[in-house]
Specification:
Shape: elongated
Distance between the termini: 75 Å
Number of helices: 11
Radius of gyration: 26 Å
Order of helices and strands: HHHHEHEHEEEHEHEHEHEEHEE
Number of strands: 12
Strand content: 15-25%
Structural class: alpha/beta
């Protein structure tokens, strides 16, 4: 390996002092050096392949321009990986890099990951969860900047969450605006399951938004079907059973797209068309939702925007502001809800 190129090498090539070269490379606005000097320094740095000494800069500025990202299963979960993608994009825009550690949700591994990040003197740590829930955070130095992403914590109160209450309201409003006010079945909610630590604590907010919208529109649900496992087989099984029992379905609200995939199969097997016979609306905006025929109208989880927001909050000059910071859930309209003109 060749000798590391130093600032002195760059200065020598540009014909300037090391202090002048340093001011230019660090973007000091008050250098009072000519445009030619700036051009020579940047050209010399490029020609020599100069890279700043991050460790030395950290000692001078008390910042390493690195962010820790600790998650349970986010990195290995296709759907939730948008949290990392958004964080990476925002960090890059701010001149930071992100060090990612995945723990599998095991507290011992989380302690090890946090220790490793602190040893690298990261400027702050984002704790992310695949499902929005209260998340364990090991003891940390009091000055450590912390943001909870798709997660909450009693001690570290700066959290970024999807605006589930508004999202739930939007799902009901889509049906009401299409003239669908009765025969609506809700698929997925299980109050007992929501108290389990592995379930999403934000679903209660989603249901609250739906309930408020139903009440305001003078609507009621025909059925609310409890389902523990939100997978296609469960959606198929429940809808097939309801149809066999003679339940009159006008619309189905599924609490995730995977339930909706199964529900749509059961409807097709019964000879019912979407949306002419039964309208369908769901949550998540799984990438497969666009490939259903017809395409599935769904309320998306804004994972990438949440990741970006977490980094922005972490890097606030005065530190992460406490409180819940909600990110809007986008309404993705496709063709699974009938037009109001169809009656």
């Amino acid at each position: 390996m060749g000798k590391r190129v130093t600032l002195a090498d760059v200065a020598r090539r540009a014909g300037l002092s090391p202090s002048a070269a340093s001011m230019i490379l660090n973007g000091r606005p008050d250098t009072r050096l000519s445009a030619d000097a700036h051009e020579r320094v940047h050209a010399a740095a490029s020609e020599l392949g100069y890279r700043p000494n991050v460790a030395a800069r950290a000692l001078r500025t008390d910042t390493t321009h690195t962010i820790g990202f600790v998650s349970d299963h986010v990195a290995t979960t296709r759907f939730a990986s948008g949290l990392i993608k958004g964080s990476l994009e925002a960090a890059e825009a701010a001149g930071h890099v992100v060090l990612v550690a995945e723990t599998g949700g095991e507290p011992e591994r989380e302690v090890e990951a946090v220790s490793a990040l602190l040893d690298r003197q990261v400027d702050g740590i984002i704790f992310a969860s695949m499902r929005a829930r209260e998340t364990f955070v090991p003891p940390l130095p009091s000055r450590t900047r912390i943001v909870m992403l798709n997660a909450t914590n009693d001690v570290h109160t700066c959290s970024v969450l999807p605006d589930e209450e508004t999202g739930g309201r939007r799902a009901v409003e889509l049906l009401a605006d299409a003239g669908i006010t009765e025969g609506i079945v809700l698929l997925g909610y299980d109050a007992e399951a929501e108290r389990d630590v592995f379930r999403s604590e934000t679903v209660a907010s989603r249901i609250r938004g739906m309930s408020d919208a139903l009440r305001e529109r003078g609507m009621t649900l025909a059925r609310s079907e409890s389902i523990w496992l939100w997978e296609p087989a469960s959606g198929h099984e429940v809808i097939a059973r309801l149809l066999a029992e003679g339940e009159r379905l006008t619309a189905i609200i599924c609490l995730n797209d995977r339930l909706a995939f199964g529900a749509s199969q059961a409807l097709a097997e019964a000879g019912l068309g979407i949306p002419d016979d039964v309208s369908l609306v769901s949550f998540d905006n799984d990438e497969l939702a666009a490939y259903l025929r017809p395409g599935l109208t769904t309320i998306g989880l804004p994972h990438e925007e949440m990741g970006r927001r977490a980094v922005e909050l972490l890097l606030e000059p005065d530190g992460p502001p406490p409180g819940i910071h909600l990110v809007e859930m986008p309404v993705v309209v496709r063709a699974s809800i009938r037009s109001a003109t169809l009656g």
